[in-house]
Predict the 3D structure of the following.
Amino acid sequence: MPPVTDPNPPPGRVGAVIIGRNEGARLVACLGSFPAWVRPLVYVDSGSTDGSVKAARAAGAEVVALDMAQPFTAARARNAGFARLQELGAPEVVQFVDGDCRLQPGWLEAAVAFLAARPAVAVVCGRRREIRPDASVWNRLCDAEWDTPVGKAKACGGDALMRVAAVAQVGGYDPGLIAGEEPELCVRLRQAGWEVWRIGQEMTMHDAAMTRFGQWWKRTRRGGHAFAEGAAMHGAPPERHWVAETRRAVLWGAVLPLAALLGLALTPWSLALLLAYPLQMLRLSRRWGWERGVFTVLAKIPEAQGVLEFHLNRLRHRKAGLIEYK
């Protein structure tokens, strides 16, 4: 596959897959953020009732409507969009993006140039930011979560520019995953000899729209489920995919509080174990600030819930349903 070298690629060399449901004005902004030379532009809709399909077609996008009689996952939607992209004449690179995001000016040019200069790289991502970090503590936590180190990485998020040939080589996303599908794809890409990078370029603006504690709890619970499932799939050495994250969730979110409560049968001093929580919050707050420090520790409880849900469903031979927070 010849590299993309033109900083302003002509139509047909860069395509896009956008997924969404009932994103409304956010989808319109997302579609409008793509340069005219990005084609094909494929929008995958998962049962919207707000006019999203009409808006996508008006923006010149090819629309794929998922059959909602089948279990929905973001991975399944991305695969459907990727398949349609290939049917239309696959470009060399594809920008995957969620419908609640919009591209930042200059991102595609910088990302395409990066891939052109590094033929071993399959995935490049940049800085994703929250549109309204001041709207809630939950949005600010999201914004901090997106700020991962620049350089060679193990994984990307939902927004990333990828080589079409590389994605096709490993069979795309795992459609059965309800979360964590991008890091799992990156595991297989790296095992196939490809590299994943994050660069310092501003990439997308995201709208988490989290204004309630319950939304944060559900999203964090979903993260715990993703940790457990990822560890079950790729936890063996040398990958150890999400093994440490799963263990931390179980230790802090389940083992420690359970030990404190069960220890009451022997001594009331067992409750002293719970002092580990404020001490850990204080330690992390000194490093990251109080919001992130406190909620990083508190997050272990819903994460542990997600881990336990995954393993209970596994024992029962059941597949978990989608965990949606908005």
Observations:
- Residues 14-211 form a domain with the Spore Coat Polysaccharide Biosynthesis Protein SpsA; Chain A fold (CATH 3.90.550.10).
- The first strand starts at residue 14 and ends at 20.
